[in-house]
Amino acid sequence: xxxxxxxxxxxxxxxxxxxxxxxxxxxxxxxxxxxxxxxxxxxxxxxxxxxxxxxxxxxxxxxxxxxxxxxxxxxxxxxxxxxxxxxxxxxxxxxxxxxxxxxxxxxxxxxxxxxxxxxxxxxxxxxxxxxxxxxxxxxxxxxxxxxxxxxxxxxxxxxxxxxxxxxxxxxxxxxxxxxxxxxxxxxxxxxxxxxxxxxxxxxxxxxxxxxxxxxxxxxxxxxxxxxxxxxxxxxxxxxxxxxxxxxxxxxxxxxxxxxxx
Amino acid sequence: xxxxxxxxxxxxxxxxxxxxxxxxxxxxxxxxxxxxxxxxxxxxxxxxxxxxxxxxxxxxxxxxxxxxxxxxxxxxxxxxxxxxxxxxxxxxxxxxxxxxxxxxxxxxxxxxxxxxxxxxxxxxxxxxxxxxxxxxxxxxxxxxxxxxxxxxxxxxxxxxxxxxxxxxxxxxxxxxxxxxxxxxxxxxxxxxxxxxxxxxxxxxxxxxxxxxxxxxxxxxxxxxxxxxxxxxxxxxxxxxxxxxxx
Amino acid sequence: xxxxxxxxxxxxxxxxxxxxxxxxxxxxxxxxxxxxxxxxxxxxxxxxxxxxxxxxxxxxxxxxxxxxxxxxxxxxxxxxxxxxxxxxxxxxxxxxxxxxxxxxxxxxxxxxxxxxxxxxxxxxxxxxxxxxxxxxxxxxxxxxxxxxxxxxxxxxxxxxxxxxxxxxxxxxxxxxxxxxxxxxxxxxxxxxxxxxxxxxxxxxxxxxxxxxxxxxxxxxxxxxxxxxxxxxxxxxxxxxxxxxxxxxxxxxxxxxxxxxxxxxxxxxxxxxxxxxxxxxxxxxxxxxxxxxxxxxxxxxxxxxxxxxxxxxxxxxxxxxxxxxxxxxxxxxxxxxxxxxxxxxxxxxxxxxxxxxxxxxxxxxxxxxxxxxxxxxxxxxxxxxxxxxxxxxxxxxxxxxxxxxxxxxxxxxxxxxxxxxxxxxxxxxxxxxxxxxxxxxxxxxxxxxxxxxxxxxxxxxxxxxxxxxxxxxxxxxxxxxxxxxxxxxxxxxxxxxxxxxxxxxxx
Lengths: 261, 246, 506
Fold this sequence. Notes:
The complex is a heterotrimer of chains A (about 260), B (about 250) and C (about 500).
Chain A: H1 8-22, H2 37-52, H3 56-70, E1 75-80, H4 83-96, E2 106-109, H5 113-116, E3 130-133, H6 144-156, E4 159-162, E5 166-168, E6 173-177, E7 192-198, E8 202-203, H7 206-215, E9 227-231, E10 236-237, E11 245-246, E12 253-259
Parallel strand pairs in A: 1-12, 2-3, 2-4, 4-7, 5-8, 7-12
Antiparallel strand pairs in A: 5-6, 6-9, 10-11
Helix pairs in contact in A: 2-7
Chain B: E1 6-9, H1 13-17, H2 20-32, E2 36-38, H3 48-52, H4 56-70, E3 75-78, H5 81-94, H6 99-110, E4 112-114, H7 115-122, E5 131-139, H8 142-147, H9 152-159, E6 162-166, H10 182-185, H11 187-204, E7 208-211, H12 214-227, E8 232-235, H13 236-241
Parallel strand pairs in B: 1-2, 1-3, 3-4, 5-6, 5-7, 7-8
Helix pairs in contact in B: 4-6, 5-6, 7-9, 11-12
Chain C: H1 6-17, H2 20-42, H3 49-62, H4 65-78, E1 82-86, H5 89-102, E2 107-110, H6 114-119, H7 121-127, E3 131-134, H8 137-145, H9 161-172, H10 180-197, E4 200-203, E5 207-209, E6 214-219, H11 223-229, E7 233-239, E8 243-244, H12 247-262, E9 269-273, E10 287-293, H13 297-302, H14 317-321, H15 323-328, H16 339-350, H17 356-360, H18 367-371, H19 378-391, H20 403-415, H21 419-432, H22 448-455, H23 467-474, H24 479-482, H25 495-502
Helix pairs in contact in C: 2-12, 3-12, 9-10, 16-19
């Protein structure tokens, strides 16, 4: 792929114009109070531990918050004791909803432990509903043909099944990072987006999210890397005479399956 | 009932030239409250028309005149939230580069009060013993409301008038479209806003609309008269002076 | 650059005022969002103080804008993205076309973006032979109709569902319907094809973060996610001021933005994008370009009087509060930025003389400042702009707007410093006034606000006599005025009676 190189002198002129506007003579480093790594580190750690050590009551409180926030946003929250219960319910939904883009319903699903544990295929036997897994064996990632194929599968799918890194209870916001086997399009192109998470993934607010993203001990949770998306409901628009309609471009429906276990 | 005040009345140019009734009403209410009034004969305008149009030099000249006329007064009372806003908040800005004038402007600004603010917040008078048979609604003039933050004082005074029913219009704080020279330069926009305001007033079923700024009343009056001639436009001082019928 | 005559602005405003449907839809959005955004903002931790914090954060960030932009660019490049600093509209458009050509782009899909409206990107891309499709439903409608957006967050607010139905029947070949869900579905289908076929996605940037090196996009429809996920190339445009220093700054500013814009605690989709996809990712763009635009902003930054206008989050709250916008609609502003924010930023970006009507065409009622989530003093800045128009300003290349107005003001100022002259002019007006008894015979000669007291004999009229003079002659108010009495509302009153009441009897 040909690359466009950016002329750096352009940048230095640009930035020097800003410095002139600000009345600064020399470029300077970020002022320390705008970069408080030292002071925040400790808080970050304790906040990360707080999430892992939540009591049953605190978790129950977060679940209540999630339900309260989800209802007006048209997000279905379904609590399940086991992955099997969730799979059963998801399969029933797949059977009962009419496909939007294809004659026959199909599903796309992330490669993710919580999604894998559903074994959703077992519940779709004899229905003719296909479930496409998005895993790619090559370390170097899928070929462009494979990528194209995955996007087409997602765009025709009735349902996309994903998990999430976290769910912010107070605003019913799913936090999803792009990773290997975990396509962005699975939460975007299908008509229905189904998310499977554990209650332990609930966090309080965006502040807690940002603390985790910056300071969590687990580097895999840190970010935002290349792509992190916060989803707080099904796609919606009010552009025609302020009439609220769900399913403008993205999913028309959104369900959160909350596993107690 | 005697207050140790002699206040200077700044009538404002609109009251001076077009609405003498409001001026008389202000003086009668203040007299009733035991206030001595003088009305410096050299007074003219606060300078707001020029200031709002961007003509700061001209506004500054008129502001200097205002300061010279009023700086020896103990307190200055004016029946216009907009003019008080000008003196209190814009005079210090106008003279930010002239230290001696700035000091004089700040001094004058500190003792300039809007009429209802003066009664309620300085004198603690919320009932002037007025009567009015009928329903009244109140228009929050923009500079009075957002500029000076005065919304409660006039309402307290109105609600204590005997025989009066108070009814809020919704919203009461939307601009009537006057905006000084704006209404002259952009009459279509100004009049459409005044029409909206008049509709809100009519909706309340009030017999009179009251405000604390003659400019707003002037702008609303014409259209309101076309829409429903029986609704009177009154300055709050006229209501408090009991000369609402005329 | 031609001077726009006041008639044009006034004519457009009149057209809008006389369009009852437009009046209805603006009133609707002002009620739905305008009335509820303020209370939603006040619910934030800190209450009213949240806005002050937001303002302080923005000011603090702008004070070190050069450092933050350099940090952002460095981190995005480290992640394999490209950053281009564009001095003006032409440089930004040219660079985007260059990127498109280098990647063999034929079709571009766009998310809603004020900054690309500002630089005329669509036009430039179309001229370069690249089909460009707006994908926000409102913008799509406007693009199909060949019109311009009229509201920052509801671009098609001026279109009725019947008009949209007819438009879709003509352009998309569907059967006519005015049912909003059916129309939305038709757009969903048409645009889904475009998303899947596009080679390039273009987005704006609601705010970037220097500390982490990402841009944040906000939408409810999901179109921006589509445009930044499916095509091979993602080009993001940002006005240079739209950056925060720290990730934690996003918390407050995003909350202020979504609450002020749409009374939402959180927008449906918010994406933090820090570069192209990683090789092991299944999807996402393989090329990521960020174009950072100056286009006059550094000049605003340099002027302390106007720097705070760069605090703007582009939420549209001032539009939803402004009584003037509520009447004249977005198109009258003749700029990508309508409403109170547009009345300040359009003159600053595109010429103060050119947009003189925007500077002067407001009532200074202060509703915009009250609504603003970052406390921008829009009325103060409008006054500053008027000052430049009044006497000219070499720094901003402003010519005095009107010598006639200046002369009037000089005379006015003279009269207001000399009581005798003041009284003479008043007497003259009183003498002349009866010569113009019916204003309808003299359209335009008497300003409408003054027509009121002519038509209505109730309150005031030019008599040529001064209250102040009479007060000082009389020394005490007339006996009528101090007598409290029960008032009869319906009693009509004639001017003569009024005179009888108040005029001194010589």
